[in-house]
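User: I've been going back and forth on whether these two constructs are worth ordering. Before I decide, could you fold them both?

Assistant: Sure. I'll take them in the order you sent them. The first construct and its structure tokens:
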Amino acid sequence: LVIANSTGLAARNGILVRDRDSLERAKDIKIVAFDKTGTLTQGKFGVQHVAADGMDEDRALAIAAALEKPSEHPLAKAIVDSAQERQLDLPQVKDFQTVTGRGVEGQIDGQTYWVGRPEWAQEQNLSFPDALQQSLDRADDRGESAVVLMTRDRAIAVIAMADQVRERARTTIDRLHEMDIQAVMITGDAEAVARTVAEDLGIDRYYARVLPEDKVNRIKELKQEAPTAFVGDGINDAAALLEANMGLAIGAGT
């Protein structure tokens, strides 16, 4: 009766209990391991920071968004979305073109602008103000992806982007800590990215650059410490979900 009631309650809250025994095991869980991308994060880029020199930050973002609007690239979409969220008016662009492997260029109010990889600015030996260099270094340290807005002779702005943390992920980690359950993150991303997300969410420990096939081994190691649950959303998480004492598949991925 208890199992039937709890299964029904779970279903009303959007949780499908595939294995009823998992409810019995849930009370013993002491470690919850999470996949990162699409689980703790939204799986899409968002603008984290805009630094501008000699121009208002909103104006720099508006120019970058106007140039990036025709592009399909995820970073370009993040810049356009951020400008729209700030309700910025995008200027008209003339002579737009893509420069393969580097970025885009176009004319706005008679001035030619480029938006692209930081290496592009270095290749052209452009003047790079100290404040913008510091912003670029900070983005590197945090594992963020950055693009540079530039003119013919100097860099104007640095726009740093990252996969955005889900707000509900913060609540989840906090609740786990209240229950004296350890939170662990397992991700294939680089060390800097993993560290930034872990610090942001208050995660107890993390494993970076873990290949999908190695997630199972990490779960086996955690299980030796204490009963472990694994939370993931991708098809490549399937083996780790099965290996854990309790597997929680979120979204439509698995």
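The second construct, handled the same way:
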Amino acid sequence: QGGRDKVILNSEKLEQDKKWDGLSGIVTNIKNKSCKELLGYYRELWQIESCFRIQKHDLKIRPIYHWNPRRVRSHINICYQAFYCQQYLRYRLQLQEYKISTEEIKKSLLGIKQTILEDIETGKKYSIPSKLNESARKIYKIMRHKYSNVPYELA
């Protein structure tokens, strides 16, 4: 209460509000579950929110620059397949107790390159793989994928 120059606090109301400090409430329309089950659902909510965040930011599912319905569906399908692959990779790494963030996975794998050179005289093409960083090496090992950094001729 009060005007511009004077503020009056309702101390009785403040005391009542103190009883609720540090407590949270959950409102739901689910009627046939126990409190324990509902709290379990709520505690898993962060995983769902994390999935949406990954789809929105990392996979850039939006904006969609397609107008043909078939292309829009294909774009979304590719994004969800990429999301599945990413989640599967994180799951496999977790099983091996290798703690690494999604961003670190992305950075380490994006650093893997192959340079392709063509011999002008013979027309043969050669691939020169980059060296793996330590994180990428662990990821490849956990996924049981062999990687050689020895140059080789492309067929």
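Notes on the second construct follow. Strands lie at 114-118, 125-129, 152-154. The first strand starts at residue 114 and ends at 118.
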